[in-house]
């Protein structure tokens, strides 16, 4: 599908999300002009001309935001873990379940058993749900294969989702999610398999945009994380980390040494680690869906992140264990209620800062030259997106200037 030559959205309320003195970068009674997949102009009605021949659409005062960026998902997976959820409600902890061989391992079995087509179909449903709640760019991690074939298959499914559109997909190799069952007694052997076999082959097939490691006591050590990151960088790939979720640890220092694009979870991050993130330009990705589902009492250090000017992104973490959540508006609400973000911080988290967490400088705000990724909402003020719960307020989405979701048609 190619983008129409020129589109003008008129009678719009626009939250440009451009960082500056105006909250949300809000422009009332605005016009947005897009052409050839790019934003050409945005501003007040009196300041922007509708180009001759443009396709004009009136939004009748409704709100437009940048298309949402979900910068952390595990949405390709075999099946649900509702049984484990029920066990947690009875008092079992996430770490207990993992130590007993459940948790991520359960999903690894289900994902290995699923065929490519089956994985594709369940994943596509999840991706479209994110899209219909405003997402235009979604990151997808591997990590439920933990062997060459299944890790590649997960990334191939992600690339196929990208090719079929409309959502832009970024892939992340997370073969270092937990130690694969085959290497239970030889974790370093598994790290070696990742470095010498899985990563090079995934790179050779063009399947990897970034590399992630789950650095935690039940997964990989800071030293092992360092080895995987060093290998990633030899391939010219940026790195990301799951760190300080369940306990404090030295993983964040490894991430900042490698100038990680993002460090994710961060419940137990210390002030000096936050300072190092600021210096390294590492974005904090906060995942309140996991806080909610795990009933986690420990909160990420939002005040320290603010103090040191670390950009905060919010993401769904969509996965069957800790965050079966496919709605970024709900994630914004959880970010405000559970993590204490302001509505404006929450929206910046799923737009501008989510894009930065993926290293994408061409999206996340509405400004001339940016990609024409836009979402329209049945509200008149941006804080309403964060405030309403489960209202399904997204009514239209454009990806690269192409109308890909439209409740009115
Ligand atoms: O981001 N923390 C590690 N990975 C996922 C959980 C994966 C799972 O339990 O299946 C997360 O929370
Ligand atoms: Fe995760």
Question: Roughly what is the average pLDDT, rounded to an integer?
Answer: 97
Beta-strand portion reads 15-25%
Radius of gyration from the alpha-carbon trace, in angstroms: 21 Å
Given the C-alpha coordinates, what overall shape results? globular
The main sheet comes to: 8 strands, mixed
Q: What is bound: which ligands?
A: N-(iminomethyl)-L-glutamic acid, fe (iii) ion
Number of helices: 15
Taking pLDDT < 50 over at least 5 consecutive residues as the criterion, the unreliable ranges are: none
- Total number of strands: 16
Report how far the terminal alpha carbons are from each other.
17 Å
Structural class: alpha/beta
Helix % is 25-40%
Account of the protein in words:
This protein has 15 helices and 16 strands. The mean pLDDT is 97. The chain is 36% helix and 22% strand. The strands form two sheets. Strands 1, 2, 3, 4, 5, 14, 15 and 16 form an eight-stranded mixed β-sheet that branches. With 409 residues, it is an alpha/beta fold. Strand 2 and strand 3 form a beta hairpin. It binds N-(iminomethyl)-L-glutamic acid (NIG) and fe (iii) ion. N-(iminomethyl)-L-glutamic acid (NIG) binds next to helix 3.
List the helices and strands and how they pair.
Blueprint: E1 6-15, E2 26-35, E3 38-44, E4 55-58, E5 63-66, E6 68-70, H1 82-89, H2 94-99, H3 104-113, H4 116-132, E7 135-141, H5 148-164, E8 168-176, H6 187-204, E9 210-215, H7 222-234, E10 239-243, H8 251-257, E11 262-265, H9 271-280, E12 283-286, H10 288-293, H11 302-307, E13 312-314, H12 328-339, H13 343-349, H14 352-357, E14 374-377, H15 383-387, E15 394-399, E16 402-406
Parallel strand pairs: 1-4, 1-5, 6-7, 7-8, 8-9, 9-10, 10-11, 11-12, 12-13
Antiparallel strand pairs: 1-2, 2-3, 5-14, 14-15, 15-16
The structure holds N-(iminomethyl)-L-glutamic acid (NIG) and fe (iii) ion (FE).
